[in-house]
Amino acid sequence: MKLISMATSRSLNMRVAVLLIMVLSVCGSEFSRKKRKTLEEIKKINGNGPYVGLITVYAPEETAFFATGAFQSDPKHPFVDLAGRRFRVGKIHNKKVIYVRCGVGLVNAAAATQNMVDMFEISGIVHFGIAGNANSSMSIGDVTIPTQFADTGLWDWLNPNGTVDPSDFGKLDIGNFNVPRGEGQNLLGHVGYSTEQFYSESGDPNTPQRVIWVNTTRQWLNLAANLEGIRLERCVNSSFCLSEQPKLVTGLRGATANTFIDNAAYRDFLFQTFHVSSLDMESSAIVMTSLSNSFPVLVIRGLSDLAGEQKGDNHIQIFGPLAASNTARVVIEFLKTLPNPHYALL
Hints:
Shape: globular
Radius of gyration: 25 Å
Number of helices: 7
Largest sheet: 13 strands, mixed
Strand content: 25-35%
């Protein structure tokens, strides 16, 4: 009985193994078919390029963008699903564009941008969304088109007796923010802000440049500066309006980190140390990825909140849709003024 049982067990195991191989083979074959179909679709899309790549972050920004009605979907190839994201193909003011929502954070931003430039015939990247405001001369509802970005999430967090590396760009002494000031010991110690490692096609392989700031593309920034004076929306609805008329400002600085800033002291530190006006979680990754691959890039960000300077709850839920709407309006106007062919500005 034991011999029969063992033989039966071996036979069952063999049948399971064969079945598993067959299932994996079928799944692999199905995956290959889907991948081939996607690549064939992308090839057809690229045959009609080049396109301007448009990248935003999350649903409210996307809603505001499509609410403008300016995006006209391609009738033959309206979208491609790639790496978990939907890349939408269309036109805005007769400019060919491919739009994607990347998701929150530096990793999502870099991944979506690399997908964009690797898979599609792109002439450049326009990134847009909302941001926190770190500059007291700016107001909620304003739109900023920064000239450069710093990644303020590159920290050397030291022990209380540690010494910040002299090559670090900035230094944050946690104890300076003790309340009451100067009393007690703060074991959080010091934070030094390190430099970014920037890899580029124009540089030597495996030899990064050490940089604090990454610049948006000067030609596109100059073109966008002509939009200053554009009329932006002041009212959230018919009964709730901002006290000041929002404005577009170009040429400032922005900071990016995987941190949502809602703290007045840290906001003030970032402004005083880096002289930045906008705070977000994606822009520097998109700028660096675009430039690493030698593509022009522009960032357009609407200010949705005071990054902790306000009293009470953060204002992003109230003013986020208005900031997103103003941002989308600037994006549409920029594309309208962008000459053809796009690559003439490279």
